[in-house]
Amino acid sequence: MLLTVDVGNTNIVLGLWSGTDLVGDWRMRTDARMTADELALTVRGLLGPHADAVTGISALSTVPAVLRELRVMLSRYYARVPKIVVEPGVRTGVALLVDNPKEVGADRLVNTLAAHHLHSTACVVVDFGTSTNVDAISARGEFLGGAFAPGIEISVDALALRAAALRKVELVPPRSVIGKNTVECLQSGILYGFAGQVDGLVRRIVRELSPGGKEPVAVLATGGLAPLVLGESETITDHVPELTLLGLRLAYERNIRP
Questions:
Q1: Are the CB atoms for 10 and 30 separated by under 8 Å?
Q2: Which residues does substrate bind (predicted)?
C-alpha cells in the first residue's frame, strides 16, 4: 500500500492507497517542534493494523522545520521502502509558467497534477487551508499562478484578538445574512464574506483563462475548511477533499516504477 503524507501549516493529512483506491485517511495537528521519532510514532498509531502494509511513501511539507524531521523519519523508519519527497527536481510533468518556479509550493504543484488528471479542461483549484489559495491551471495542465488570501481560521483568530467586543464563534450558517446579534453578525460575515471573496477571485481568473466564456473551466475545492463555504459558493463545481493526496499518488507513480 502507498502512504501519502501532506504536511501543511495547520494539519498533517495521511492517506493510504491500495492501487487507485483511497482506503483510509487521517488528520493530525502540525507541530513545528515535532521530532522525527514523535512523527513516526504518531503515524504508526494512526495507521493501526495497516502500519506494516506500507510498501511505498509519497510526501510533501510546506513547513521547513517539519520537512527536516520528515526526511529523518523516512530514512530511519522506512529505509527499505521506496519513497519520494515532492520538491524542485521531482518529476511531475507539470510546467510552471511563473516568474520563479522554485517559489511554487509542493502542495500547489501536486494539486495541479491531480486537477489535470481529473479534468481535461482548464481548472481553478481553491484550497481552503491556513491561507486560501486560488490557483489557475491551463487545459494542458500547466500551472499558471494564482492568488493568496488569508485563511478562514486565521482571519477569525485575528478578529477576535484585535476587537475587544468580538470573540470566536462556531462556524455555522446564521438564520439570515442580516445578523440579529453579535454571534450571527460574525457568522454571516465569515461564511458569506469568504464565499463572496472566493467567487470574486474565481470569476476574475476564469475570465482570464477563458475570455468570453468560450472554453469550459472546472472549479475544484479542497482543503480542510472547504465544507464551510461549499454550500454558499456560486462558482465551485467540484469538491475533491483528497486532491492533494491524489496528486502525491500520481507523483509517486511518475517517479517510482513497480
A1: yes
A2: 105-108, 182
DSSP conformation class of 180:
S
Over residues 42-90, the pLDDT tens digits come to 999 999 999 999 999 999 999 999 999 999 999 999 999 999 999 888 8
Provide φ and ψ at 102, rounded to 5°: -70, -15
Q: Identify whether the C-beta of residue 220 lies closer than 8 Å to the C-beta of residue 202.
A: no
| Residue 182 marked in a binding site | yes
* Residue 27 in marked binding region: no
End-to-end C-alpha distance for the chain, whole angstroms: 12
- Give the C-alpha separation, 93 to 247, whole Å: 12
Q: Is 107 a catalytic residue?
A: yes
Q: Does residue 252 belong to any structural domain of this protein?
A: no
CA angle 151, 46, 82 (to 5 degrees): 90
Please tell me whether 111 is known to bind a ligand. Answer: no
107 annotated ligand-binding residue: yes
Total domain count for the chain?
Answer: 2
Choosing from 107, 135, 157, 199, the catalytic residue is: 107
Count other C-beta atoms under 10 Å from residue 223's C-beta: 29
Are both 118 and 235 inside the same structural domain? yes
- Residue 120 domain boundaries: 101-247
